[in-house]
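Reading a protein record of the kind used here takes only a little practice. The record below shows the convention in full:
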Amino acid sequence: MNPMTRRILFLLSWGLGLWPAFSFAAADFDFSTLQALPIQSGGRVKPLDTFARESARLVTGHETFQNFSPIGLLLDWIAKPDDWGHQDFILVENLELKKMLGLPPAQNRVSPEFLLKANGFLDFVKLVYQKQQDKVVLNPGEKEALTLFRRLQRFEDIESGDALAFIPVPESDQWISMGELRRAFDKAPKKMPPVAQALLFHFAEVLKAYAENNTGDFTAQSLQLEAVLKPVQDNPQVKASRLSLEVFYNHLKPFRWAWILHLAAAILISLSILLKVSKLFPAGMVFFVSGVAVSLFGFTARCLIAGRPPVSNMYESLIWVTFGMTVFALIFEGIFKNRFFALAGSILAVAGFILADNVPSVLDPSIQPLEPVLRSNFWLTIHVLTITLSYAAFLLSLGIGHVGLWSLWRYSNDQERIKTQVQLLYRVVQVGVVLLAAGTILGGVWASYSWGRFWGWDPKETWALIALLGYVAILHGRLSGWLKEKGFIIGVVCAFLGVLMAWYGVNFVLGVGLHSYGFSKGGLPYVISFVVLELALVTTVGLKSPSKAVAA
């Protein structure tokens, strides 16, 4: 069989999905070559490793599925589309949508075949899409229907090769996908340039080696594919050092290491306080500082990869606020040296980074291009970072406030202890108020620059002002003597709910206004549960008989 005939057979078998069904579990494939290949997706050039992770998270809800690595899952979808066509792996979460599809509440995944044949699903998606185009506010079930269709579409685009845009068009921002190349070859193979034929051939060879569980050929063909792509991808959009950094960032998972280190810090610092073993505290602080350093690296790497500050969506906002809170905790601990800041900071860091690391279907960690209104790096940096740093200070005040609630409950007669904690809490709230006031004013300047008006009572603007006035009222209440120790502690804890509404509620609950861009969806049950628990906690502490010194 001559090489050209062999190439055509490989291409046709790839296009028709006729690879043999082998088990891949035992193979130890080397994906290091493929994972660094540049691909255009989501409005930017990224390594294939990132695209595979994003696709796996979008479609299945996790980066790994059924023991497949992200790139392994990607290749398996392409190599065995028929096997995956009737397998339940596409995530579906909304109960209302499940009911419409006739699914039991406990079933969280469906197959592509099921969705394509589901009575009325595609028609419903078309109707919802039209509502979205007409600027009609969608309910959660309708939003989930669009997301579910996106998951189905991503799988089909990967399986067909249409999502695999490896070839940049000269003097253009567009890239050509392997699917487009394959269809052009099928239509007019003699007109296909030799380099394009080589790309199709080596890509098909990679799939063949993968399908046959041949790790040696897989590595060799991956290197051949990289060699063919290298001169083709000689493009200003492709920055090899940035791609390598992104692959390293993906594998390191710095924010996962951050919560692990902060967990160790929280345990050691807690033990040093509870057991009164002072030698444990320095060890805890070593872990605390290490956690701050790792998260600092994560932010630096993310900024270099994205070319902007990491504050454009809820995931980036959460990890930035959590990181800022740990920095504030470290600074205040260095000033006051009382261990409460380190304790509160480490516990909150664990909670914040774990949330970011474990709910990818709600907090999408993908690096996306900025919305057009955000494409002023100066204003994005000044306004958004100032506002979110105020959230970081208020988050730390929430932690210190909970330490104060514990003291009110457990040590209600220890006046000195409670007064000390109130004084510490007062200082943190002052920092947060200054930052939030500055950020709100700067937001008005940015609004004037972007939208032609300083203030428009947009929901985000309104709730930022409400949160600011809430904390200002509490500070004035304390300064004037209207709020004693207990009232001040409870007030600070409750005031954070205003920050939560400004930070989360406007984008996730209201979903309207000029500031509703760039944020993920979902998570409302978790937030409602948190609010209910907080209100129950402060009510329980507030109803306890106070001592005279801490009466509200």
About this structure: The two ends are 90 Å apart (CA to CA). The chain has 22 helices and six strands. Residues 53 and 196 are 27 Å apart (CA to CA). Confidence is low (pLDDT under 50) at residues 1-26, 547-552.
